[in-house]
Amino acid sequence: MKLEPVIGLEIHVQLKTESKMFCSCPNHGDIEAPNINICPTCTGQPGTMPNINAKAVEMGMLISYALGGEVAGVSKFDRKNYFYPDLPKGYQISQFDLPISQHGKLTIRLNEGREGEREFSVGITRLHLEEDAAKLLHIEGGDGKSSLVDFNRAGTPLAEIVTEPDLRSPEEAKAFLQELRLIMRYLGVSDADMERGQLRCDANISLREIPDDPKNENWSTQFNPKTEIKNLNSFRSVERALEFEIKRQTKLWLDGQIPSILATRGWDDTRGVTVEQRTKEDSSDYRYFPEPDLPPMDLTEMRDRLSRMVPELPEARRRRFIEQYGLARSDARTFCDQPDLANYAEQVFSELEVWAKSVQTAGGQELTPERAAKLVSGWVLTKLNGVLSTHKLDLETMKVDPENMAELLTMVHNNQVTGTNALLILEEMVLTGIDPSQVMKEKNLGQMDDIDALREAAQQAIANNPKAVEDWRGGKTTAVQFLVGQVMKITRGKAPPEEARRILEEELGKL
Ligand code: ADP
Ligand code: ZN
Ligand code: MG
Question: Where along the sequence do coiled-coil regions lie (predicted)?
């Protein structure tokens, strides 16, 4: 029996609006003392009236367009009735039959530029807006019988995104969520940080048997009752919980106990297991009905404006980085996964173009686009990141502006400085913001162009290392590389490696 996982996700994204979904309270409850940002509306006092936050509607529409959804002409809010201590009104204002949008699709590339690269698409069933609940605080060391309620979060705007059951592995689920998070950041609608609850995910999973003839049309839409896993608050836990469920459900299948009813389970991150919870309500238990205090929204006029406001999205930017700058696919991805770094790289590229012209005028070796791509990925992606992490800095706190970065890369390109010393210069630039030519002069880190001195260093390296010379005589070519290293040491990194090697070989030939 061959089993295949069928996975669909329900994702909540907290929207970064100034105020809450239905009142004017500030929308940043998680950084404040409890119960500061509250009012009669978001605490559910009788007789209060909700007001729709237009900004939240715009953000919902923006996400919809980014996910290729069809935005409704008319959309309305509904009451979803249930009791829980974190829900002051006894119902949540949500959307039932007329959500903001439906029928979207997101295509994801896995393992880009690596082995196992492939693409898959996930249907977006719908996107609707709703309000978040309050937060319950179960105080540790308390009597275990009482909890506190913080209403700051109550009424925070949420976009709920529901996918089709199109995902086929935990790996796909994780990749999908990561791309979704990035899209939220590109849109500027949410920081979508899972650890901070700004992106929350429930994962639905069932198994099904792959038939002998998988091309059979009927089979492709046949699913079995699903299990919903709640409380997933990191990408890692989404992946682990799904892996655990696959194992658990596979065992049930093999034991002949195929799950036959819908189930809800929680994820226990410490124990690494899912645990049975109450069985799932279906929508009739919520007694949805139209929210009588809010008129339906006519979105036809906003649609035009919002559809044109969608910025360049991560995938389009990656393609552009590959085409426009000639970056390797995996490098383009690494850049675009970090919007700040991608912006920085774009500025460095544009400054490099200016430098490329000056190199040409000076009659140096042409700084081609291919060369520029290599320099930027090597120095911005790898070396700069390395220096930043050594000094616990980031792009905001470090001091190298794109113009200086491009100048340094041009110096490397022109062999005015060795790689080793360029790294020292970069470190100084990161800390002080001084431009590279000045650092080079002050610290005397320029490349040696004195051939006689270089030859002297080569002779010294040969004299000091008879063992390496012997190895070289015995045909060990790596011995030369060792000697180049020695020349570097003697010249304190200022020898141009290619030139040093040439002279070493000349000198060795004379022996
Ligand atoms: P419910 O009414 O229980 O919320 P929905 O049909 O609205 O169920 O689907 C909720 C989520 O569960 C969606 O993301 C959907 O893709 C996923 N889903 C639905 N059926 C299955 C199934 N058989 N196996 C796995 N996931 C499923
Ligand atoms: Zn309020
Ligand atoms: Mg549902």
Answer: none
Residue 233 lies in a domain: yes
Indicate the SS3 state at residue 337: coil
For residue range 84-125, list pLDDT tens digits in order.
999 999 999 999 999 999 999 999 999 988 888 999 999 999
Are residues 213 and 86 located together in one domain of the fold?
Answer: yes
Return the percentage of the chain with pLDDT > 90, whole number. Answer: 74
Q: Could you tell me the two tokens for 190? A: 């949410």
What is the model's pLDDT at position 143? Answer: 73
> Tens digit of pLDDT for each residue in 377-419?
999 999 999 999 999 999 999 999 999 999 999 999 988 888 8
Query: Do 213 and 320 reside in the same domain of the chain?
Result: no
Picking from 421, 442, 463, the residue at the C-terminal end of a domain is 442
Residue 83: how many other CB atoms lie within 10 Å:
7
Cα(32) to centroid of ligand 2, in Å?
14
Binding site membership of 223 for ligand 1 (Cβ less than 6 Å): yes
* CB-ligand 1 contact for 286 (6 Å cutoff): no
For residue 384, count CB atoms less than 10 angstroms from its CB and return exposed for 0-12, middle for 13-18, buried for 19 or more.
Answer: buried
Q: What is the DSSP string of 352-387?
A: HHHHHHHHHHTT-S---HHHHHHHHIIIIIIIIHHH
* Phi, psi (degrees; rounded to nearest 5) at 104: -90, 180
| Average pLDDT for the chain | 92
For ligand 2, an ion, list residues with CB under 5 A. Answer: 23, 25, 39, 41-42
Question: Atom 1, ligand 1: which residue's CA is nearest?
Answer: 282
Instruction: Please tell me what DSSP assigns to residue 94.
Output: E
d(CA 384, CA 505): 34
**Tokens encoding 111:** 């393992």
If asked whether residues 59 and 77 sit together in one domain, one would say: yes
Residue 362 lies in a domain: yes
Q: Is the pLDDT of residue 206 over 60?
A: yes
Query: Considering only CA atoms, which residue is closest to atom 7 of ligand 1?
Result: 162
Q: What is the pLDDT of residue 219?
A: 67
| CA 506/CA 511 separation, integer angstroms | 9
CB-based contacts of 46, cutoff 8 Å, min separation 6 = none
CB 186 within 8 A of CB 311: yes
Centroid of chain to Cα 56: 23
Q: Region 477-492: what's the mean pLDDT?
A: 86
Residues 6+ apart with CB under 8 A from 314: 179, 182, 183, 186, 336, 337
Spatial CB neighbours of 404, under 8 Å, sequence gap ≥ 6 = 429, 433, 435, 436
- At 29 the pLDDT is 63
